[in-house]
Amino acid sequence: MHTNCHLKAFLVLTFLLISGLELGYLHGASKAPVRAKHGMVASSEKLASQIGIDTLKKGGNAVDAAVAVGFALAVTHPTAGNLGGGGFMMIRFASGETACIDYRETAPAAAGRDVYLDNAGQIIPKASTQGYRASGVPGTAAGLCLAQKKYGRLSLKEAIQPAIDLAEQGFLVSDHLSDSLRAAAPLLELFPESRRVYLNNGEYFEAGSTLIQKDLARSLKTIRDEGADGFYRGEVAAKIAATYEPHGRWMTLEDLQKYEPKLRTPLRGSYRGYDVITMPPPSSGGTVLLEMLNALEGFNVSGIGAGSSRTIHLMTEVMRHAFRDRAELMGDTDFVKVPTSQLILKSYASEFRKKFDPEKASDSLALPARVLPAAEASETTHFSVVDKDGNAVANTYTLNGGYGSGVTIEGTGILMNNQMDDFSSKPGAPNAYGLIQGEANAIARGKRPLSAMTPTFLLREGKLFLVIGSPGGPTIISTVLQVIVNLVDFGFTIQQAIDAPRFHHQWLPDELRMENQGFSEDVTKALEARGHRLALRGFMGDAEGILLEPKTGMRLGASDPRGDGQTIGY
Ligand code: DON
Question: Which partner for 558 in 92, 154, 422, 495 could form a disulfide, CB atoms 3.0-4.6 Å apart?
């Protein structure tokens, strides 16, 4: 028996050496995905996942459940769950139709191109990331109410009431939430209302204590009773405008009244026979993801091996090229022209794929000129929901940074985003994620800042196969890419695909970011030898995915071990 094992190990190792494979990952086995027959919710907080499941069991569809989870996370996951932020909801109906709701924030009228620059043209530190002027006009209430009204089966009241109950009666603070709030103290204590609501007036919320949010419950009730108008007109809107009044009237009643969510047409592409349905502008996510998948199709990554330095090298080069396009070309397509349809063509990817060295790192600042094919005639949180009929929702929404701008609107419990930092404050200067962005993403009144959020579906033989997304700023797109490659090329389970260590390259800074746990030294050394500058970092992303097993239709779900999420099915 023993000898047999040794023999097997020897044969496997010999095979790997001969075939040139490296064992790239250090992590052990993943736990089995959560399995269920009917419905499933994967979100970054367990009470919210449970509310989603309860909504499905009550007869709600995936959209009802997603709306319920969206409002619940605003209560239980304040770092990213929100009313004061925005996001994107992708819906795939069992009928095969798709819908996409863009409820991204917009720049208020007071914002102009140079609003974050001083007289000398220099960026004013923190102006776009902290405090009153960092916020865009929120879209979440409008987006969730629209989704509910247009596509839900239950009433708005039924979808929102569980969140109201949690806010009003309180819930037990987890270790994760207690630590997260404490870690955000340097930001939140700058604003008295945030200090009162989220830091318990400086006493903090210990794990096991109860977090009651009466003001937030009242705001949610107004939305329950009046729909989106309960946020954008009336008392809540008046309080928002009053908060900004002494701060240069940064956000006014008019800004709020003018806000509207938009229905977008999802982008479509394919990867090794799977259809990919993903997020169009104003997110860069879908475009960059499709560019990367198209380019990778030209390499036999499954033959090279998961986690090997050669696979990571190829994927890094693909990221580098696609992220350059993001930086130089992308922005809100209601304001600027972006050649999206050309960028996602297979012929474009095969062109740029030829230009990089399959063995050595390129230099981000010396990439060859882009050749576009002729135009054809034609701290964020993600949750995934699938219902018993096979309708699905992939929703990513955000305040941008953890706890957003740090500002809570007095008497409403509404924490405001710092999404304005996703614009280019000054084209060419890095934002909080180190992203260099261009003219196309310059600030303009009413414009939406370019996002990287990438809620995505994969179909196999026309049938829903995967619902996926993640937070993580620009690393979102790389995370979604890696989950897809891990599933399609390496045959991982959904849990393994999410657990596997991650890496990211965004063109500039010219560095290959790698999670500092999970890659072997052999691999990091080999990447350096190929010319990559490594930046070892902590965890990237918090992916939440659901896969539909092709043969049985069983729902297999997984939450990211990097976060505190939970997948629940029934
Ligand atoms: O829209 C975007 O791309 C960013 N505001 C997302 C921020 C994010 O994912 C933060 N979470 N870690």
Answer: 495
